Amino acid sequence: MRRGGRALAAVAAMGAAVGTMCVGFAAGGAGGEAEPAYQVVDLHVDVPYQVHFKGRAAKLPEGHATARTLKAGAYGGIVLPIYIPDKARKTGPLIEDADAILATIEGIVRDNPVFLPLGAAEAVPGRISTFLSIEGAGAFADDITQIDRFIDRGVRLISPAHASNTRLASAATGKRVDHGLTELGKAFCARVYARGALIDVSHVSDAAFADLVPIAEAHGAPIVATHSNARAVAGHPRNLTDEELRAIGKSGGVAGLNFHAPFVTGQAEATLDDVVKQAEHMVRVAGVDHVAIGSDFDGGIVVPVGLEDASSFPALAARLRKRGMAQGDVLKIFSLNALRVLGWRPAKAGAAAP
Ligand SMILES: [Zn+2]
């Protein structure tokens, strides 16, 4: 099988499904169908963390993302992160931790009929396409070639650090150091792009972001921050500067709107209107083609009032529309922009790639 082929087939299938929806939308407006006018493709939902580390049942009976809330929120696609905590072990995480968490994700997908199998080649109405990412890939400094087999299994987005600095990159919330990507980290990022997956900058430092820009450019790769907001609106190091948002836009990438209250407002609390403010700023700076959804649901977040769980997307859509955002733009933010980056392929990776 071609490298990562199944995951890309899933993206194509989702894209076709959303495209059909768009046509329906353009043709007649509200049409009386039960199906909502948009779907959500969420770039970051931490249910694997809850199941693997926090004892939640794989059938997802509770939390922000359950079969009921995901359906009510019109989810059509979900990225399930292989999140490897920096403190997974006293001596630091190992690559085998990523294998174990991936096995947990396979169990979650198997146990919930709402999810389509990883890499399913067809989108099915009422079910959710599933995609993989790695959050906190520092352990791969042990052997960066090991990332290949995860990309082969469908991982599309990879962040080289989480909360703390790794041997690949300094983190947004890590100790101050005088480097961004390490030399090994640069080689790692180039390898990820060459193999057809993307680097996720959500948790890396500004210096690491800056180091990545020329590497992404050399590979024609979009820069993606799966779950980060605008720092101009909420002054948190996990958020993106306007300059970074513009670089994301220029690269063809996306920033995924994060619902964690401190990332929305810079304060302990937030409301649905605050999330809309973030979205509007991000659209203004990066462009409407470069904002997506990365809710961070079930990632231990403080949810905004009015966006309590995955079922809240109709409320967000309604508020954005009320503020004057075009339906087509809501559709872009909710799903189309995410699908574009999930479906990215390196320009030169032809059939002959070894
Ligand atoms: Zn995160």
From TrEMBL:
Biological processes, Gene Ontology terms: proteolysis
Assigned keywords, A-Z: Signal
Molecular-function GO term, any one: metallodipeptidase activity
Membrane-spanning ranges: none
InterPro entries named among the record's database cross-references: Metal_Hydrolase, Pept_M19
Leader sequence segment: 1-26
Domain of life where this protein originates: Bacteria
Pfam entry (one): Peptidase_M19
Family annotation (PANTHER family): DIPEPTIDASE (PTHR10443:SF12), MICROSOMAL DIPEPTIDASE (PTHR10443)
Protein name: Microsomal dipeptidase
Annotated organism of origin: Chondromyces apiculatus DSM 436
